[in-house]
Structures are given as structure tokens and as C-alpha cells.
Amino acid sequence: MNFEDLKLIEPIYQAIKIKGYTQPTPIQEKSIPHVLAGKDVFGVAQTGTGKTAAFAIPMLQLIYNRKNIEKKLGIKALILAPTRELAIQIDESFKDYGKGLNIKHTVIFGGVSQGNQVNALQRGVDIVIATPGRLLDLMNQGYVKLNTVEFFVLDEVDRMLDMGFIKDIKRIITKLPLKKQTLFFSATVPIEIKAFADSLLTNPVQVQVAVMSAPAETVKQSVYYVEKSEKTAMLKELLESEKIQHALVFTRTKHGADKVVKSLKAIGISSEAIHGNKSQNARQRALSGFKDRTIRILVATDIASRGIDVDKLTHVINYELPEVPETYVHRIGRTGRAGEDGTAFSFCSSEELAYLKDINKLLKHNIKEMNLAPIATFASKGDGGKKSKSAGASSGRKFYRRR
Ligand code: AMP
Q1: Chain region(s) in the chain for CATH 3.40.50.300
Q2: Residue 303, Cα to own-chain centre: how many angstroms?
């Protein structure tokens, strides 16, 4: 299917062209016609599948067409998202896809002063993208009226529930008109999510895209066997030897992320961590700095990184392998997007061999094993050139570390 087959209006079609998309993704192909037809949608999909465009594009088209006939005032669409990062990204998508439509949108989230957000609302907006807590706060102060909403989107519902937003969301829902089109997206569907969807949606079309198990073919992947104690040195070595200007580095823990940042900063490499213990402001600063390239290395945990989308990211480094193999696919899917080349390096210690095995199984091929050329130079630094084979004895693999 092509975008031409989706019967989009010309300005949206042009905006998609500018983004460089050549074909709709499966979730877009399956959702857009139903949303355009006015149906409720229950989408089972995660970040990285193109789900934002799957709801933003048809909503923009419907709002644009109706606006030309009805000229009604008030908020026409409300999108709820779990985090500030995701809300901002959705807002950016509306800006990109809505070029030339003259549809006003704004984003609302906590952790910053409310002044600018209130001003934007008072100027009048068609679309509000919000995190639940701040929205409710502004509603209680009388700055937001939702009685004109025609479209209601809940994005990453599983995560919103995880974060304890259910009460806030239910309160917000009581202020929405009964008659509206509702789009509901969740990556997983445990029983409480199914029940919540059932209570909210009317004759929904269920749209599901398979959990990604094949990363983009454009991502070159390789693995280095390196013990935990040597990973920082290996990372420094790799950043230099591969002339990596910009990389997203993954760790399994918040503490691990902080440690990596500390050691990179100590050798003058600009880096920041992004994880659940950081304030919204710190996370946003780190992400903006990384996007505008003033920060060279962003170190993230998996949860915090959900929703991070950086244009033209060339390198992902798995400082630690994830326990869940699908997570590996998500991580490396941050690079090699939209046909660009991407490279993913992974470090595997003897304790992580089982994770690697699971990842290789999911990929249905073995990630290319690197010989240790870069580390050979590093190993010769502090130890007179001695390399030790260590651990992994049972696997018969060589792990390098200094004595
Ligand atoms: P999402 O799942 O909405 O977070 O989108 C993931 C990424 O896919 C974003 O970087 C989008 O810009 C990109 N994207 C969305 N739709 C397409 C498409 N049809 N072709 C190529 N890239 C896309």
C-alpha cells in the first residue's frame, strides 16, 4: 500500500513527503482508513512502529475538513501520554504532519511552571497533547474545558497505568463528551487494560502489529566480549577508534547509567544520563542537548528511553545487554531509521552470555562477533600488553580484561 491509497489531503501528503516516508508502516496502513471512517480503534503497538502518525495524520485530516465547514471553537482533540518526552514528541509530530493546515496544537506537562501553557490555552487551540497530572491540575483551575472534544487518544496506556495515572485519567474522562471518537494504544494488553478499553471504546476496530523481532536491515550489528570491569575502558576505546561523534548508550540500571556518565565526563566526553530518578527538567535538558548535538553521548535505561526519537542517530551501544531479547531490537531500532545507515555495538560479559543467546535466537542469526582489535590497544595500556583470557571458561569464549 502507498500513501496515495490512503486518500489523504494534499497538504498532509506533502508533509509526509518532506518527512521522507515512502510507504505507510503496517500500523498506519491498518489504522488510518478506520480513523478516517470515524471508528474507534484499539491499537496494540509500541513506539517505533509509526503509531503516532497512525493517529495524528487521520485526526488532522478530519479536523481540517470539519473546521472548514463548522467553524466551531474549543478543543477538538485531546491526546494523553505518560511522559513529558512522549508528549513533546507527539506535539512535534502534529507540527510536522500538520504543516500548512493552520490547526493549533499545544503540549501540557508537569515539572515546569504553568504560565506558558496557560497562555497557549487562552489563545485557543484545536489539539491538546498532555500528561494526565498537569492537565487535571489546569482543568481544576478552570483553564481547560473539554466539553468540545471530538477525538480522544490514549497513548501507551500500559505505561500510564504502570505510572499510576489511572485515577487521573478516569477523572479527565468524566469531563469529556459522551459522543467522541476514541483511539486507544497500548504495547501490551493485560486483563485490566482489556477491561479499561472495553469500558471506553464503542465497537472498536482492533489493530495489532506484531512485536518487532527483525531490526531494520540497515543496522549493522556486532558484539564484543568484554568483562564488566573493562566495559568503561572498552567504551572509551570504541568511541575513539570508531570515531563515534554521537551515540545512545544503554545500561540496565539507573546506577549503571550514572557510572558510565561519570567516567565519560572524567575524560572530557560530554554525556548525560536519562533515567527514572532524574527530574523531568534534567531529562528534557539531556534529551534536547543530545538532539542538538551539544551532548555527545546519552546514556539511558530502557524504561526512560521509551519514546526517545532522535533523527539520524548513527550509533547505539549496548553497554549492558538487556534481559528481554525484544528490548535489544527496540534499542537498536533507534538507529538506521528511515533508510539511514546505523551501527549497533554490544558488550557482552561472561554473566550476560545467556542474554546474548536469547537475542541471537530471536534474531534467527548470530550477531557478528568482533575480534578485539580496539581492545588490544587498550589492553596494552596499563598492563604491559598482557591480555588475560578470563571467565566464560564454560563457553570457551575469550574475554579480555586487564590483570
Ligand atoms: P512512533 O512509533 O510513532 O514513535 O514512530 C517511530 C519513528 O518512525 C519516528 O521516527 C517516525 O518519524 C518514523 N516513521 C513514522 N512513520 C513512518 C513511515 N511511514 N516511514 C518511515 N518512518 C516513519
Answers
A1: 3-208, 219-395
A2: 9
CA dist., res. 403 & res. 312, Å (int): 39
Burial (CB < 10 A; 0-12, 13-18, 19+), residue 11, is middle
Angle at CA of residue 295, ends 294 and 299, nearest 5°: 165
The third-level CATH classification (topology) of the domain covering 3-208 is Rossmann fold (3.40.50)
Structure-model confidence comparison of residues 235 and 275, the more confident one:
235
pLDDT-wise least confident of 100-109, 203-212, 331-340, 382-391 = 382-391
pLDDT of residue 214: 58
Most confident of 16-25, 165-174, 275-284: 165-174
Q: How far is the CA of 49 from the centre of ligand 1 (A)?
A: 6
Q: Which residue shows C-alpha cell 571467565?
A: 391
The residue among 217 and 244 whose pLDDT is bigger is 244
CA of 372 to the centre of ligand 1 (A): 35
**Closest C-alpha to ligand 1, atom 12:** 50
pTM: 0.63
C-alpha 138 – ligand 1 centre gap (Å) = 31
Q: For the segment 169-200, what is each residue's pLDDT rounded down to a tens digit?
A: 999 999 999 999 999 999 878 788 999 999 99
Pick the CATH number of 219-395 from 3.30.200.20, 3.40.50.300, 3.10.20.600, 2.60.210.10: 3.40.50.300
For ligand 1, the distance from its centroid to the CA atom of residue 229, given in whole angstroms, is: 37
The ligand 1 site (C-beta within 6 Å) comprises 21, 23-25, 28, 47-53, 309, 337-338
The closest of 53, 6, 19, 61 to 155, measured between CA atoms, is 53
Distance CA 128, CA 103 (A): 11
